[in-house]
Amino acid sequence: MADLRVQYMGLQLENPLVVSSSGLTRTAEQVKQCEAAGAGAVVLKSLFEEEIQAHIDDESGGTEHTEAVDYIRELETDAGIQAYTRVIREAKSSVKIPVIASINAVTRNWWEDHVAEIARAGADALELNISLMPYDYKNTEQEILDFYVRTVEAVRARVDLPLAVKIGQHFTSIPALVDRLRWAGAQAVVLFNRFYQLDIDIENLRLQSGSPLSIPADLALTLRWLTVTYGKTEAQLAANGGIHSGADAVKALLAGAEVAQVCSTLYQNQYSHLTTMRDEIASWMDRHGYSEISQFRGKLSQKKSSTPEAFERLQYIKALVGHE
Length: 324
Ligand SMILES: Cc1cc2nc3c(=O)[nH]c(=O)nc-3n(C[C@H](O)[C@H](O)[C@H](O)COP(=O)(O)O)c2cc1C
What we know:
Layout: E1 6-8, E2 11-13, E3 17-19, H1 28-37, E4 41-43, E5 47-48, H2 49-60, H3 66-94, E6 99-104, H4 108-120, E7 125-129, H5 141-158, E8 163-167, H6 174-184, E9 188-191, E10 198-201, E11 206-209, H7 219-229, E12 236-240, H8 246-255, E13 259-262, H9 264-269, H10 273-287, H11 317-320
Parallel strand pairs: 3-4, 3-13, 4-6, 5-6, 6-7, 7-8, 8-9, 9-12, 12-13
Antiparallel strand pairs: 1-2, 10-11
The protein binds flavin mononucleotide.
Flavin mononucleotide binds near residues 240 and 243.
Pfam family, one: DHO_dh
InterPro entries: Aldolase_TIM, DHO_dehydrogenase, Dihydroorotate_DH_1_2, Dihydroorotate_DH_cat
Keywords: Flavoprotein, FMN, Oxidoreductase, Pyrimidine biosynthesis
């Protein structure tokens, strides 16, 4: 029988399937369900700085009195963090699998001020969900990249926990950013987050939300960047985005991922789909004569390829000249 165990950020996982941060991992009870269905680890729903900020705005009701606003800010921030640390403690006492906390902050001070409290609650690792919307034409690419790197450095200076950074897909060079994040103190980088999908309602002339869930075709982008990043940096890679089946998870491992994070497929098929996915990975390994994941991880990455130029191809040349 295939051995599915993997080491992720120094943590021992029974298998490479990690339930990614979402409404599926908001409570300790849900984390228990993930474990029962066969998850190797879970990433808790993120604590969002902006959500706490929205509470502060509601509570302060437009008051201009700065001292009052400061007081409300302190209370709301404390309440938000205490509720989150309670979930971490409850989850940790309910399951044996690693529990990874997740924070999304938009201002660097916030990370610096609160990350230690969250670390003290006992999570096995921390995933930093860093996302900046570069809407301002005055923000240069360098400034944006530096924000990511300085944030990781600041968190690393405050906590000893294993750190992963979850990023979006839109960077000029993913391998270069992953390596910078590694040197800033992150053991792993999660490729990729799925952001709010924007759509337009043409009848009512207003913005609307697109589908929050991914489809299997979204895996193509994840695989592209895994294959060219694996082996070129000491950062471990977690695949995320479009993994809907055991076969998809195998593809991510062949591309170089340490673990496969899943979300949309569990919204569609329930937690029990983790059992099916885990069995599919094991049966694929048996069929191909692999007893451990390390025997095939990254086998189809650019680093291990005899035709590395094949990975650098961006365009369908034949399509451009009208043949295919
Ligand atoms: C409803 C929903 C809520 C999510 N909430 C979070 C979150 O709190 N923090 C986070 O880092 N990612 C969040 N995500 C993103 C997922 O963790 C994951 O990165 C993304 O959905 C891609 O994986 P998938 O293709 O398996 O769905 C959320 C996704 C969905 C669909």
